[in-house]
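Help needed: design a sequence for this.
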């Protein structure tokens, strides 16, 4: 997949391009249906499939007061869009100046002149441009007058739940990872570099942990303990993860601490990925290290049982391309 991070970097309009536009936060099943339609139309047209997105998320610019927290990082979004077999990804820097662009100017200068749209595929609720002028009726009228088709993909539901970034954020915040997976089509994942922690996990508690620093600005799952699948160096391991503030030790910083099963490698400074499979319990304050260690042992036993029961499913999950 070719990636362009500025409209001016695009080497002229693409011939017979099939295009979709969106923020694509999380690249959930609804987004994947959009991409599938774009890829199909591109194949029929014998042209490229193109996805257009924005960085940062427009709401972070126009509505910073709402504190939007994203499901996926930009790097994750790139990886997942590439897995959808999109040929070209255009990432437009989103600024207040760009937000003031009239919808018709965006159609003419970006979609037609820079990208060369022939078929445009959008979600049922898509709108863009200053004042959200570029809604679906506007796009359809523009397409009729300027020679491109507009197709609208209807909302996608799983078990009565709308596949939307908003719904997924809600479910992540509640720790309902089973339902998150249904809407994403994969496990919810956090990732990052393993940092040096307080060194309490192994020496004090008997359960060494890999620690990831989390930002208060990031989307955080419900605080507590999770059964996890840890991906490191192309291999998968079971584990238990605590997301929280370590109240037993009067912690003040949000962190993610993972005890990885059957693992004994030095991974400080290395990147790991953690799939959150199931919420076990809320974070608790214990009387001291001994009581905490007893509870962790119970968490580990429960997690191993859950992982054993889901062994076949997890083998397939570990082989999925986005974990490699």
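Sure. Designed sequence:
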């Amino acid at each position: 997949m070719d990636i362009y991070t500025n409209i001016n970097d695009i080497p002229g309009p693409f011939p017979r391009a099939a295009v979709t536009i969106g923020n694509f936060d999380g690249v959930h099943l609804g987004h994947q249906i959009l991409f599938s339609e774009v890829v199909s139309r591109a194949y029929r047209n014998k042209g490229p499939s193109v996805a257009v997105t924005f960085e940062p998320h427009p709401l972070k610019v126009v509505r910073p007061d709402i504190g939007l927290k994203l499901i996926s990082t930009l790097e994750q979004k790139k990886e997942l869009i590439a897995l959808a077999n999109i040929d070209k990804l255009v990432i437009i820097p989103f600024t207040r100046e760009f937000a003031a662009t009239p919808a018709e100017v965006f159609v003419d200068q970006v979609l037609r002149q820079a990208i060369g749209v022939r078929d445009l595929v959008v979600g049922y609720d898509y709108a863009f441009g200053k004042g959200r002028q570029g809604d679906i009726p506007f796009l359809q009228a523009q397409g009729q007058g300027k020679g491109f088709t507009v197709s609208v993909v209807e909302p996608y539901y799983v078990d009565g739940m709308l596949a939307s970034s908003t719904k997924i954020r809600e479910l992540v915040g509640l720790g309902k990872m089973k339902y998150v997976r249904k809407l994403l089509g994969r496990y919810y994942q956090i990732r990052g570099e393993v940092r040096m922690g307080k060194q309490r996990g192994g020496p004090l508690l008997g359960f060494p942990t890999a620690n990831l620093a989390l930002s208060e600005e990031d989307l955080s799952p419900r605080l507590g303990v999770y059964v996890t699948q840890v991906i490191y160096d192309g291999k998968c391991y079971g584990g238990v993860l605590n997301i929280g503030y370590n109240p037993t030790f009067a912690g003040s910083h949000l962190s993610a601490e993972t005890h990885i099963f059957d693992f004994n490698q030095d991974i400080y400074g290395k990147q790991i990925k953690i799939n959150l499979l199931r919420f076990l319990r809320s974070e608790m304050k214990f009387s001291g290290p001994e009581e905490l260690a007893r509870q962790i042992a119970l968490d580990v036993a429960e997690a191993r049982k859950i992982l054993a029961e889901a062994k076949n499913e997890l083998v397939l999950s570990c082989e999925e391309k986005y974990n490699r």
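The mean pLDDT is 89.
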